[in-house]
Design a protein that fits this description.
Chain A is of the alpha+beta class and about 220 residues long. Helix content of chain A is about 25%, strand content about 30%. The chains are: A alpha+beta (about 220), B mainly beta (about 325).
Chain lengths: ~220, ~325
């Protein structure tokens, strides 16, 4: 589809590249965000913020009048395409040790039931995949990782938790994530990592950036 | 770089007292919300009245205001909701939209709760600005991230806040500390009859099939701010005579970037107006977005306050006040 470039209020523009969230569209959105930033830097300017997401980019326009912002961003949106759908091969890679199930993964049994797999099969499927950081959002440092193996794709919980502890490994839809801080959350908690100590708050240096590669490794109990 | 010295001690924080400035810009791609004052217009005015920069760190008080002990002679600026602060001893009333000189040993106490007429948030600024570390470009408190402001949390009894020494020649050019008033900078706390009208522009969901009807229903409904509202978002309850069934929408679309002022429709039909601590991405459809100039007024809406949306793109006779 042709990108939709539309005002988002009077101080932002939303560029939608697709209506479906895929690993490729997240790469394209990330590439577009980079193009937008670089083009502004070359002009000696900057947008207040540029936020790539599942298949779109939101640009806050600051003092730039909306018609000029739309024109500039339409031109940039037209330049991304299938060539931008690949994440870089040489991206930083991290392995995350996970204690799956029991008290560390209170939703593992429910996920098994919903998917028709055994708990061991859920763990095997989750830990066998290689994930990319697709985008950040929802909370400081919250990285959406994809894509989850299709047999694990289920909707998020009917009722969210008021408090999910930092370090929780979770799945929902086609994504998995590690909660970087204590926060409310509606995803299924299948394990726990020691990567983020509870109560320490947000650490910008610890953020997994888009394009990064993540693998989960079951810890022996 | 001039020094700083203790200026205020929190005796009682009230409902929610935090250090805020004009917010943290440019880190949304890390999932970091803007934070900052929910009413940036009033924070700016309070700072100018205190004789300091618009983006200096100040206190944001909510609904029930604080009691503060003054630790050294200091000029403060007050703007926003009239929580009826008084200075002890003596009980002299400290008017909102004014600057005041307070002396070491005095107590500032807020004596009235916020409401639909008085507003929700009072800003207390100090000449020189509050001295807390700059984190990711701002002194605002990120309550969701537990960083910034005063130790990443709301203020508690016993907390001591320092303010920078104003130094020579740093008084604001816009207001004389001893005599500044609200008239020059323009109070954001509009008269009650107008304070409940918030201008919105169509959001992406308004351009989808059925979107115009939903936007029309949003605008036609008389809303009340729900008690389940906070710095992350205002939840809205409809007046039953005007309630519409059109506003429930599934919330499972791919996540996209959002901004404070975005109005989300949820599966329950209860709209959410995003506020500065709200998530920077979301999967709920956005039916409309509050215009930037009216976002400060969102910060003065108390639970129970009436609220209606108006469309300047459909009614050009609406006066555009900045």
């Amino acid at each position: 589809m042709h990108p939709r470039v539309e005002p988002f209020g009077d101080a932002a523009v939303l560029i939608t590249l697709a209506d479906d969230a895929t690993v490729e569209m997240a790469a394209r959105a990330n590439a577009l965000a980079r193009h937008i930033r670089v083009a502004a830097e070359r002009a000696g300017r900057s947008w207040p913020s540029i936020v790539p997401a599942a298949c779109s980019v939101l640009v806050q326009t600051g003092e730039t009048p909306m018609p000029a912002a739309l024109q500039t961003l339409e031109a940039l949106a037209d330049r991304v395409g299938p060539a931008d759908d690949r994440w870089p091969a040489d991206a930083p890679s991290v392995e995350v040790a996970v204690r799956y199930g029991r008290d560390d993964g209170p939703d593992l049994l429910a996920v098994a039931e919903a998917t028709g797999l055994t708990p061991a099969q859920v763990v095997e499927a989750h830990a066998s995949a290689t994930y990319r950081v697709l985008f950040l959002g929802f909370a400081p440092g919250f990285a959406y990782l994809g894509a989850l193996p299709p047999e694990l794709v289920i909707p998020r919980r009917a009722s969210p938790r008021v408090q999910v502890p930092a370090g929780s490994v979770a799945i929902a839809g086609s994504y998995t994530a590690v909660y970087p801080i204590d926060s409310p959350g509606g995803w299924h908690l299948i394990g726990m990592t020691g990567r983020h100590a509870r109560g320490e708050g947000f650490d910008p240096a610890g953020v997994l950036m888009p394009g990064g590669i993540v693998r989960f490794v079951p810890e022996r109990s | 770089m001039s020094g700083s010295a203790p200026a205020l001690e929190v005796v009682e924080p009230g409902m929610l007292l935090t250090v805020q400035d004009l917010g943290r810009h440019g880190f949304e791609h890390l999932g970091v919300p803007r934070a900052g004052a929910a009413d940036t217009g009033s924070l700016t005015l309070a700072n100018r009245l205190a004789g300091t920069e618009a983006n200096a760190a100040a206190l944001e008080a909510t609904l029930l205001g604080p009691t503060l002990r003054i630790l050294r002679d200091v000029t403060i600026g007050l703007a926003g909701a009239d929580l009826a602060p008084v200075a002890h001893p003596g009980g002299r009333q400290l008017g909102i939209g004014r600057s005041h000189r307070l002396r070491a040993g005095e107590i500032l106490e807020c004596t009235e709760a916020g409401d639909a007429d008085r507003g929700c948030r009072l800003y207390i600024a100090v000449q020189g600005g509050i001295d807390v570390p700059v984190v990711l470009g701002s002194r605002s408190t990120s309550l969701v991230g537990a960083f910034g402001g005063h130790r990443g949390r709301s203020l508690q009894a016993g907390d001591v806040l320092a303010a920078f020494d104003p130094g020579k020649g740093r008084a604001s050019a816009d207001a004389t500390p001893e005599t500044g008033t609200a008239a020059d900078a323009g109070s954001t706390l509009a008269p009650p009859a107008r304070s409940g009208e918030i201008r919105v522009l169509p959001g992406p969901a308004a351009r989808e099939t059925g979107g115009e009807q939903r936007l029309a229903a949003l605008v036609a409904t008389a809303w009340t701010v729900s008690v389940n509202s906070d710095r992350r978002g205002l939840r809205l309850d409809p007046d039953h005579d005007t309630a519409s069934n059109d506003l429930a929408m599934p919330g499972d679309r791919p996540s996209f970037g959002v901004v404070p002022g975005a109005i989300q429709l949820t599966p329950s039909g209860q709209p959410i107006v995003l506020m500065p601590d709200g998530g920077v991405t979301g999967g709920y459809p956005v039916i409309a977005v509050v215009v930037r100039a009216d976002q400060s007024r969102l910060g003065q809406l108390v639970p129970g306050a009436p609220l209606r949306f108006v469309r300047p793109d459909r009614h050009p006779s609406v006066i555009v006040r900045t």
